[in-house]
Amino acid sequence: MSTSTSPRRRLVTVLAAAALGVGTLVAGGPAQADPGPPPSSMASMGDSITRGFNACGFYFDCTSRSFSTGSESGINSHYLRIRARNSAINGKNYNQAASGAKADDMPGQATATVGRNPQYVTILIGANDACTSSESSMTAVSTFRGHIDTALATLKSGLPNARIAVISIPDIKRLWEVGRTSGTARTAWSLFGICKSMLANPTSTAAADTQRRDRVRQRVVDFNTQLAQACAAYGPNCDFDDNAVFNYPFAFSQVSGWDYFHPNAAGQTALAQVSYAAGFNW
Length: 282
Known about the structure:
Blueprint lengths: L6 H4 L31 E5 L1 H4 L26 H6 L9 E3 L10 H11 L3 E5 L2 H4 L10 H18 L4 E4 L6 H7 L3 H10 L3 H4 L7 H28 L3 E3 L3 H4 L17 H13 L5
Parallel strand pairs: 1-2, 1-3, 3-4, 4-5
Helix pairs in contact: 4-6, 6-10
């Protein structure tokens, strides 16, 4: 499917984290292979988080601030951390993500990524599959898993020796928790129609709204379980972050002031640190 750039679909990913009492999800599978030396090339797959959307201006991608392949020193991305150890990677940081992407876009991104022939690939996808215009329009768990399996099979066939880092989806309920008392955040959420499945009626404490938010959050938990299982099935060259990103307590100050939804530079910096440390960590 195409990667739509409509406002509703572009503005549907954010750094967020778990509230207290998060249950433990399935871990990332078999023992990780020896990561070997730092890679000499890398690529990223995903959505607007990986594109750095709204991280340096209003309503456009800012790939230099991507937590994965970004080149801005203040972010200290995966790419820059690896380059500090292996200068051969310089300039070989390919951002194949697309703002607005969902799991159904991953097979296409995987094909494009294989064409780059990277030694290392990061994947962060799924927030848009839960953050939709309504609860009923969220991606089914089985459908989500099918797209992930297809994408990983493409990577495994085309890049058999590459290391694959699968990163957990942030807990989008955390955004509601830290932003619901902000009038400007609520205005932005309403104006742009952001993540209505979670953020509709943000000040409501009615049982129907409380239960809806919990169900949407559970869908993220279910997606992360599928990511963990799919990575485990891939084999030791795939590392799941064991929900490090899902569990990290991101703050409202790490959310973009342009839309009160996407991660700002501080959020991208935190994501780089958490996800890199939880991965191959060269």
